[in-house]
Here is the input.
Amino acid sequence: MYKSYHTLHPLIQPKNTADWIVKWRDKLALDKLIVFCDSNTRYLAQPLAESVDALCWVVAAGEEHKNLQQAERLWQELRTASASRNTGWINVGGGMVCDLGGFVASNYMRGIPLVNIPTTLLAQVDAALCGKTAVNMGPWKNQIGSYYFPDAVLLDPSMLKTLPAEEVLNGKAEMFKHGLIEDIGIIDYLDNLAPNTLPGIKWVRRAAEVKMYWAGADPHEKNHRRILNAGHTVAHALEAWYLEQGQSIPHGQAVWAGLLAEGWLAVQAGLVTEEGALHWMLDIPRFVTPRKWPKTVDWLPWMAGDKKNKSGKIGFSLPTYPGSCLLDQYFSPKEVGILLRKFDLNTWLS
Ligand SMILES: NC(=O)c1ccc[n+]([C@@H]2O[C@H](COP(=O)([O-])OP(=O)(O)OC[C@H]3O[C@@H](n4cnc5c(N)ncnc54)[C@H](O)[C@@H]3O)[C@@H](O)[C@H]2O)c1
Here is the structure.
């Protein structure tokens, strides 16, 4: 264990995932099990569902399906299947499945028992952990959601075997962020690994425990948990911009870009020296897949909808030196425009 941390739920590496599910079902005397997955994780979910005698429900893969329409469809299906408060819901998928499935489970009959089995690196170190669920509303990311803690998150490295190289890069964005917030050892480890090589389970777990430590101390994000939003004010603005264009950008790629932009903002605001920030900012380009990035003036206005904003000011958790991050940094939209005037993602990431 990395350091003592408050557990919002157990993080388990089961010897046999199906056996663990059967024990959970029997312990809670569950009347039915639903295994929920997307079209790409069905091949992992279906055999599990068959071995534990569960129904297997599928949603089309892709962030554009993380919405209220899908949630309503799933609530209708639960009703049709006569699901009760005693029906167990198991997410087998990446952050999209865990967010949508968790949201559905948290609201059906005010909440049914839930387990997450993350199948992307990003979900293993972040999205499946610590109880945030959400759906998007149009281009606005994660606008409707809940805090709902799973009974357990099962960490099974074999779930990542078929993960495409790009998804490895995406997952490393949240791992790197956890390194920036708390543990420079994670950054050193990632630096010494080829960008699209999967990290070992020991480091996956360590990155997950950084999140569990900060979220456990502040489950409902009143205070310290906001540190986990480093890079995310810009990341969510970029994701909204892409969704508005009818396109999408993987969350992890938006986080890499967000960490860069927010690192630059911290330098311009005088919160860290350029040398201190460049120490980690220069690591980032090798994890980013090529694309034509929008100009800063195009994504800047989308920060206005960020959930961290207060009294018309834009809220950031700003990454500074590796292993440290500044909470509750607020700037007016005009100030942000000035601080990022010379920042261009295409220059940094070309
Ligand atoms: N709730 C939280 O605390 C939290 C934190 C971070 C991110 N998120 C959310 O998580 C989502 C991003 O998560 P993600 O990157 O896992 O995206 P994702 O779930 O969309 O998965 C990415 C792609 O990989 C595919 N995939 C998943 N597992 C696979 C496997 N084992 N083999 C092959 N393909 C596989 C998926 O079908 C999808 O096409 C976003 O919606 C983001 O907002 C939530």
